[in-house]
Specification:
Elements (H helix, E strand, L loop, with lengths): L2 H4 L6 H6 L1 H12 L5 H20 L4 H16 L2 H24 L9 H24 L11 H13 L12 H9 L7 H26 L10 H30 L12 H9 L3 H7 L2 H10 L8 H13 L3 H25 L5 H27 L3 H8 L5 H16 L7
Helix pairs in contact: 3-11, 4-8, 5-6, 5-7, 5-8, 6-7, 10-11, 11-17, 15-16, 16-17, 16-19
Amino acid sequence: MRWADLLLLLPPAPYRLAAFPFAALFHHLCASGRLSLTARYIFLLAGGCLLAGTAMGSYAMLLLIPAAGSVLILLSVSPTRAHTWVFALQMSSQTICHLGLSSQELDPQDARPAITLSTIMLLTQKATSLGLDIHEGVVLLRLGQGLLQRALPLCSYLLFFPALLGGPLCSFSRFQARVESSEALPGRLRAVGQRCLCALALQGLRAGLAAGLAGKEGCAGLGCLPCLWARALLLRLAYYMHWVLDEALLEAAGFRPEAGQGDLSLHDLWMLETTHRLAVFTRIWNKSTSRWLRRLIFQRCPAQPLLATFAFSAWWHGLRPGQVFGFLCWAVMVEADYRIHPFLSARATSQSVKLLYRGTTWVFTQLIVAYIVVAVETESFSTLCLLWTSCNSILPLSYGLALLLLLLLVKKPKQN
């Protein structure tokens, strides 16, 4: 994939913008009491189906079929087994879609396959999260009702249009509470406007950075390091804008994330770009997905939970060569971070040494993050080999060697 292809605006954005009026209409009708509870669920579900058909065309069936299958499993399987069956259905269908679409000769200008795969990944998040809630007794499915009455809230949750094309992940309990609530959220329009302005500012930064990078494809030696960092920053800005628009759309529909539960706040943005710890960056990056992975894999894996979490993340993202390499490299770098920083910080006693330690490790963190982001976004094996054999691999290799050395010398500190 060419750099120019990677730097395009994320394809779901126009459809997300088109959904804003319908999100505001839904919130207004709920706050004014003009929609019954059943009508609210139907409104959200119908909006999701309409948005899926508009954004994905015939590919929407790849989303609707596993969603319907997950609902049938949740309603027919015992709570103790629901999560296992839903997980198996979602990950098998998602893997088949990834492999099937990647093996076809698709029009590079057609954004529908990419939107479809992204939406199926989000469906897997919601379905497995709901399955875990039922398995753990957090959510109790109501008995004594008809099949359609029981299925409607589940279908609406899996396909409700404000969160169809993006996150953050909203739990079923919070979704149900907001649908059943008739209270208007204070300051909603102001918060939506602030997030939209933030997205506009991020797009302005992307445009300015892209203009500055125009025609600077070539580099040699260590000069590739700042070039790689700048291109990775361009990609990160695209993700930041994506997350801000997602939260603005949820806000407009009345599904404001709880404090600290969204994917990106100004504090998060500041921490992502200023932290000198890769482990801190990893926890803050795409926070709702990080929490989902921690709950789904990390806390349930008896051995090597960190490696298992990143390996599953590579599977969930599609198992392209760049994703497998990038996420496994990320796991090794986080493991190294847990050992290197306590070792160095204990030896940074004076103020000048502390400043040198934090400044140097911030640069290292920025460059390693850039390396991982570019690796994950690399689709072809040949391009990945070029990245691996370039000077950009110096820092990841250095961290890897430091990890091997510290494994022999220092006991691993307890992870938070």
